Amino acid sequence: MREKFCEKYFDNKVKPKHLMEFREKTPRGNTIEGLVCRKPNEYLGSLIITHITEKSGKSYDTEQFVHAFPKIHYWDDKHRLKEDEDSIVYCCGEKLDGTCLILYSLNDDFGQSIEIVPKTRSKAVADEHIVEMYKLIDKKAIEKFFSDQVHLNDSLMFELYGILNRHEIAYMDTYIDIKLIGAYVDDIFLDYIGIKYYYDLEDFSKPDILFSIEKYACENSFLVKWQGHKTRLKNYEVSSEDSFPTLYDAIQEIKLLMEQINNEYIKNNGRRAIEGVVINGKHVNNSQMYLKIKPSDIEKEAKRLDTVPRRFILKEVHKYFDEFGSKVQDIYRADETHYIKYVKLQLQEEFTFEQIEDPRTRRRIKSVFMDVWDSKIPPVSLQNICEELVLKNPDASISELMRIFAAEYPSKKKQSRFVYNILSKILKK
């Protein structure tokens, strides 16, 4: 069965070993089962739903393919965009710093929509805290799109960003919102032109285009043009007077221009303005590909250090909580190294093996993870925690209570000494 799926849905670019089983409950209480692709290529996170159990109890086999958002790569020997055509225009949209959210219609055995389901990269259904943020979004355009039956097998990809879902870049004018960053429509993964002008997607807000890279017919050089005149960065215009012999050289220029924007923005606001830009275009083998470009200073920072800086780890830890937020405690109890393995895997794209495996990096991952976890727990005083522990376990000794505390509040490990002192005083009463 998996071999058939690899050929039918993944063009044999995915092997059976890359398809992992899932069983998830949707926001409306329906249960879905199937396979999710874990290979970091254009099919990363894509689903084959093979079984549905509706909330009513009705259960049946199905076969529904859901295309997720492709892995975004840096330019290298393997991941390169086409540049040998006569005329080329690549638009560079702002890389928003949030959570990738994919929406798809879950369809019954009659081909009718049961519900619109939000998912994240690694999962078939988004975690509860992501769903709660999604509920705050204006869904008129989404409902209009999926109300047309021709779109019931399509999927839309968004970035969920804003103050409520802050990672590193602060969008002070946005509480929580989404912008369309990709679309799989009519069995086609759309490029920028398709997203902007065709397939009923004109109602969706999209990331700002900050630069374009252009090559005209009968010319052998590329131009980099500023396109951010009507964006939030309109007062930080940068320009390039040169032409560049290759697409790679044009990309290097954009890295430098983004560094200029960030440097000026830091002077005025004390923080970076942009994380980078993304190009959506054709790979040299004609498949669809997303290419990310980050400012030069961010790239340099990663290369000149012996260990991984805290802020890069923080970014990956936030991604971990995006995927597993409500299940973190259960996962941690089963495997205390699960998050470490996840973060290290994500860091491999920007850092060397030596940087990632340095003992200082491991300690930093643990510290950042516990800090983030603790920040997501509703604030409760240690006094209240201790009183509740004693109330629920009236016959337990201090050592037993400390073991229970460690199991239930691993992110508060640094405060164990204070908990011990409070428990001692309570038990003496």
Describe this entry's structure for a reader:
- This protein has 429 residues and is α+β, with helices and mostly antiparallel strands.
- It folds into three domains: 69-298, DNA ligase/mRNA capping enzyme (D-amino Acid Aminotransferase, Chain A, domain 1, 2-Layer Sandwich); 305-376, no CATH class; 382-428.
- It is built from 14 helices and 16 strands.
- The protein has helices at 2-8, 128-134, 140-147, 192-197, 247-269, 296-303, 310-324, 328-334, 338-347, 353-357, 359-376, 382-392, 398-408, 416-428, and strands at residues 19-25, 31-37, 47-53, 59-66, 72-73, 88-94, 99-107, 113-119, 155-161, 177-185, 188-189, 209-215, 222-226, 243-244, 277-282, 288-293.
- The strands form three sheets. The chain has a seven-stranded mixed β-sheet, covered by helices on one side.
What is the strand and helix layout of this fold?
Layout: H1 2-8, E1 19-25, E2 31-37, E3 47-53, E4 59-66, E5 72-73, E6 88-94, E7 99-107, E8 113-119, H2 128-134, H3 140-147, E9 155-161, E10 177-185, E11 188-189, H4 192-197, E12 209-215, E13 222-226, E14 243-244, H5 247-269, E15 277-282, E16 288-293, H6 296-303, H7 310-324, H8 328-334, H9 338-347, H10 353-357, H11 359-376, H12 382-392, H13 398-408, H14 416-428
Parallel strand pairs: 5-16
Antiparallel strand pairs: 1-2, 2-3, 3-4, 6-12, 6-15, 7-8, 7-9, 9-10, 10-11, 12-13, 13-14, 15-16
Helix pairs in contact: 7-9, 7-11, 12-14, 13-14
